[in-house]
Records
---
Amino acid sequence: MLAVLFTGSAGLALLRSFDPASSRLFPPCPLHYFTGLYCPGCGSLRALHQLLLGNWRTAWAMNPLTCVLLPFLMYGLASELWLFVKGRPLPQIFIPGKWIYALCAVIVLFGILRNLPFYPFDLLAPGAMLRL
Amino acid sequence: MFCPQCGASNADTAAVCAQCGRNLQPGAPAVPAQPGVIIPPGAPAVNIPNYLVFAILTTVLCCLPAGIPAIVYAAQVNSKLQMGDIAGAQASSNNAKMWCWVAFGIGLASIGIWILLALVGVIGSLHQH
């Protein structure tokens, strides 16, 4: 757990200092590298980098899905940390299974739509909204 | 007091957790959910992890579709919990966990290959000079 915390902090520090868009430090998405397609996660590292710098508009343009899901993910990770430190998780809301299926559909749909080459879906490609 | 099962905050005098229904009286065993017992939506009586956070993390950060089955299994865990199918939920939970690790492993492997290719590229460019 401590190793995870250390790695995570080091990763965030690296991510804050180096922009994945211009640095070769971070690996490219293999799917995009080989097929040219965007997956639902494309741009998430760039989005996190911009968020760490406080540029939420640029982050949103890179990957709106990541920005929307981030509060949930951060709470979940905080809960895991809480479980480790205090021995119990943070208060949890039970999410009905249907909602998770819906989320899954949203993620897949987002992955498909952002590859469509026409307006308005082309705006979902990583960074496309910056050109507005 | 806090529920030892779901972490929800309850009145100190509460007999059962308002959120998950666990017995809060000291010494009393946790009430296992049984098929046939009607569980109100949003209140499973046992805590089976669905690994949803990790499933989403691997989907969004590992950039590969292997996280999608993890999310589907996470949804199955909660659906089966709602139906009172504890054994089924546990099986889905194990699958969700496995797919999280698969997605994470593929992500890690692709990073490793990337580093390897980068190193080979660096060595190659050194030879040209």
Note: The two ends of chain A are 43 Å apart (CA to CA).
---
Amino acid sequence: MQIDWIHFTPWSSLMGGILLGIAAGALFLNSGRILGITGILEGLLTPKSDDSSWRLVFLLGMFASPLAAKFLLPAELLHAPRIDANWAMVIAAGLLVGFGTRWGAGCTSGHGICGLSRLSVRSLVATLSFMGTGFVTVFVVRHWL
Amino acid sequence: MQRMIEFIVGLLFGLGLLISGMTDPGKVLGFLDLAGTWDPSLAFVMGGGVMVGLLGFGLAKKKTTSFSGQAFQWPDMTQIDRPLVLGSLMFGAGWGLAGFCPGPALVAMASGNDKALVFVLAMLAGMALFGRFKKRDN
């Protein structure tokens, strides 16, 4: 295996990961809610009474983050999105991610970060499953097609 | 006050995604590409997140209610079933196809990326489609 030393960012990725863990821990300790983007969106798609406002303000905070980053963070710490996928692939990917995350009841945040932090075997199985097809899909797209 | 805290938590989460590199599909695919030149960064994102998360959820286990007074909503499902596995496999295929998972796609959309916007619209359509599929199934 060859390591991509040029793009490897152990420190900023670790720091970013720590922030994700702080956010997940803070939301649960403060509000008693799991920080899972799938669950947060799902709750807005099928709204129950007075359960929407925390979801909306959380999303607003997320939406404000790119602007805040411009003021708070040095430019070299930020990664501009590099997107190889064409429009058809982007749409297909969106449909698969939307359907799949609701079917599997979680994504990288809910199962990956919160689930593993709770030592949930169910979330571990989910995480291994989506990482597995992630690896396979990239192999097929980059090395077979 | 609670809403303010939740806004700040959302902001921190978004900043974490931006700093970690998760909002850059090129970086995500670099991690998922084991057969090419491999970028291990995302393992550090997961490692950092879970390391801190273990402390947070560990602390919550010792408490009876959250700081806001709301009960902890611990997920109650523990079974490993077909929907969990098939849905997660499907999610991973989409993740590997474009390099976006839900949170980073929302942040990339907010930073003004047009492909992220289309991805998010397709993702919401996929979520709505699942709602109909589930209704028909019941």
Note: Chain A touches chain B through 114 residues (CB under 8 Å).
